[in-house]
Write a structure and sequence with these properties.
The complex is a heterodimer of chains A (about 300) and B (about 325). Chain A has about 300 residues and is mostly helical. Chain A is about 65% helix and about 0% strand. The longest helix of chain A is centred in the middle third of the chain and has 37 residues. Chain A starts with 7 loop residues before the first helix and ends in a 7-residue tail after the last helix. Chain B is globular, with a radius of gyration of 24 Å. Chain B has a two-stranded antiparallel sheet with strand order 1-2. In chain B, about 35% of the residues are buried. Chain B is an all-alpha fold. The chains are: A mainly alpha (about 300), B mainly alpha (about 325). Chains A and B meet through helix 6, helix 7, helix 11, helix 12 and helix 13 of A and helix 1, helix 6, helix 7, helix 12 and helix 13 of B.
Chain lengths: ~300, ~325
């Protein structure tokens, strides 16, 4: 059905603005970035998926009650049915409830590890960039050394040695993932520190710490925010690898990789509900984060922004 | 150019020393001595202390590091008390198999990703491009073990074409000939690598397509086929050189997962076993080898780029 079109004259007459285009209120860079972000369809979809998983994992257990502490051999490996929407696993745990529980661990570790990495990286990069000279070179060589550390191997060794908990895995993953934000922030600080407002702050007697915390880091925040989502995605993948290899969280805690690797034992029995739903959860979460990250990068990049 | 490469070499050596000290101290803090593995869990404290003293495990950590590096430089990577074998011989047994898996996957990945990326850039936003981009995005977000599982499900269980277990032969030539067993592990590693390579190849091809020399080539009437083969491919492939160098260690890590999933007796599975059995000397050697490979991969990429790119060569 065709919509009735307003007459051509009215179309032309209505939005007639001042010469040289519409003059609106000056919008802040952040608001422009937000608008750019919202106009990216994939980003909004990614954001929606992420919100869904946060609600699913953290609120879901209050709606869909399951027993995730007591094993029950009588209920082992049941197919999907009314009381167990996604069936049960080899220990008799409800699989859907288990995915929620594993997802809590994945998201908690993902965000906390990203937080650790971002905090270390931002401070390291800001100090390095502001200090300059020999301190800067020394600090950047440390970044080079950390970049050369084989991430997965070292994280696995430490996870095996110190036991895997949400806290320990977050700290270990975060501690070996701060190099990229450090480099990004240093790059930003190198250009920022030549700007007039930094000179003004220095002239006013700002201490280096005040310069970093009040002037440099807030202005370098754009590149950091873009990096956060990729950090979370990488951390969730890393946790799934650790869990898959069998060095993940211990009972009663569980993570997605661990669940999937348990499901592999039943691959030939055709117990698909133990493998594919949890695999899809990992892929969807990581993909949503990557969508958001790509869109954020585009919207923060002023050169790419439509005007 | 020579002075640039020399500077690059010196930095690499500094980083290798730094990362080896760091990893040695870190792993040393986690596993101070293999005494328990040798003497058994019920050995008393005095026996452990005596063994540590006899084998130099009570020295300051930096002395132990220098001792270890001296040994490594003389071809002694330590002794695995768990496997009762020198670490070097353990690695020698398996290195060819891992190199075969990584190497052939890398070659396939390049052979697929290069033309795919160029095709996507030339036909951008076409249906083919969108399908390839979406597929790459999904693969990129997928843990490699899940991809491997799907391949096993489809090609080994639902349609039993290939074996779900990799070749168990110790002879790399037998392994290479056993396509039935090796297709799925190779496909897993290849697809994961193609996912990231094709993304880079697409964006670097798009950058090159926007350059003036492409317009000039077209304006002077060069057939499109020659524009692509002479001007686009060579220039768009330059970033790939760096990417391939950087992916050497990632393939090693990818091997860890793939070898574990397909039970392939390579270096990754050796590392996995050493984690399970708390075989500290093997862990240390493998992790150090991984770190050195990262630095070497970077260095090789930079040297190759210097040779390939006249803009750097002449500078």
């Amino acid at each position: 059905m065709a919509m009735p079109q307003p007459p051509l004259d009215a179309q032309r007459a209505l939005p007639l603005g001042p010469e040289g285009g519409e003059v609106g209120a000056v919008q802040s860079g952040w608001r422009l970035a937000l608008r750019e972000f919202m106009s990216n369809r994939l980003a909004v979809v990614g954001f929606g998926i992420l919100i869904f998983f946060v609600l699913f994992c953290f609120v879901g257990p209050y709606i869909y009650h399951t027993d995730q502490t007591n094993t029950n051999d009588l209920l082992a490996n049941l197919g999907p049915s009314g009381p167990h929407l996604l069936g049960t696993d080899g220990e008799g745990f409800d699989e859907l409830g288990r995915i929620m529980k594993g997802g809590q661990a994945a998201l908690e570790i993902g965000f906390f590890a990203a937080f650790v990495a971002i905090v270390i990286g931002t401070l390291w990069g800001a100090v390095s960039g502001l200090a300059g000279g020999i301190i800067d070179s020394a600090m950047m060589r440390v970044v080079d050394v950390f970049l050369s550390v084989p991430f997965l191997f070292v994280v696995l060794i430490l996870a095996v040695k110190f036991g895997a908990t949400v806290l320990s895995l977050s700290l270990v993953i975060g501690f070996f993932a701060w190099q990229v934000p450090a480099r990004l922030v240093r790059g930003e600080v190198l250009t920022l520190r030549e700007r007039d407002f930094v000179l003004a702050a220095r002239t006013a007697g700002a201490t280096p710490w005040r310069l970093i915390s009040r002037h440099l880091i807030p202005n370098a925040l754009g590149v950091v925010i873009v990096n956060v989502t990729f950090q979370v995605a990488d951390a969730i993948l890393a946790v799934s690898y650790i869990g898959f290899l069998g060095f993940g969280l211990h009972y009663p805690a569980v993570d997605w990789g661990d669940q999937l690797s348990n499901g592999i034992g039943f691959l030939e029995d055709g117990y698909w509900w133990l493998i594919y739903p949890v695999g899809a959860c990992i892929v969807l979460t990581v993909m949503a984060l990557n969508f958001i990250g790509d869109a954020l990068r585009d919207s923060m990049d002023v050169r790419l922004r439509r005007r | 150019m020579i002075s640039y490469l020399m500077r690059r070499l010196v930095t690499s050596i500094v980083v290798v020393i730094g990362v080896s000290v760091f990893i040695f101290i870190l792993l040393h803090a986690a596993y101070p001595s293999p005494a328990r593995a040798v003497l058994g869990l019920r050995a008393n404290g005095a026996a452990v202390a005596a063994w540590n003293k006899a084998n130099g495990y009570d020295d300051p950590v930096i002395v132990q590091y220098l001792h270890y590096i001296n040994n490594v430089l003389h071809g002694n990577l330590g002794y695995s008390y768990v496997e009762n074998q020198s670490v070097l011989s353990l690695i020698k047994e398996r290195v060819a198999r891992s190199a075969y898996l990584s190497g052939i996957s890398l070659v396939f990945a390049i052979l697929i990703a290069l033309p795919l990326g160029i095709f996507q850039a030339v036909k951008r936003n076409s249906i083919g491009d969108n399908i390839a981009t979406s597929a790459a995005f999904i693969l990129y977000s997928m843990p490699s073990f899940f991809l491997g599982l799907i391949l096993i499900q489809v090609f080994a269980l639902s349609f039993p074409i290939f074996s779900f277990e990799a070749s168990q032969s110790t002879n790399v030539f037998v392994v290479a000939g056993d396509w039935n067993a090796m297709t799925l592990p190779i496909a897993t590693l290849t697809l994961v690598t193609v996912a990231s390579f094709s993304r880079y190849m697409r964006s670097s091809s798009m950058d090159v397509l926007a350059q003036d020399y492409i317009k000039v080539a077209r304006a002077k009437g060069l057939p499109e086929r020659l524009v692509l083969s002479r001007h686009l491919v060579r220039n768009a492939s330059l970033p790939m050189v760096t990417l391939i160098g950087l992916s050497l260690p990632i393939l090693l890590a990818g091997n860890l997962i793939t070898e574990q999933l397909f039970n392939y007796q390579g270096l990754g599975l050796l590392f996995f076993t050493s984690l399970v059995k708390v075989d500290y000397p093997t862990m240390l050697a493998y992790t150090l080898a991984g770190a050195v490979l990262v630095v070497v991969g970077n260095l090789i990429a930079d040297i190759a780029l210097t040779i390939a790119d006249p803009r750097i060569r002449m500078a």
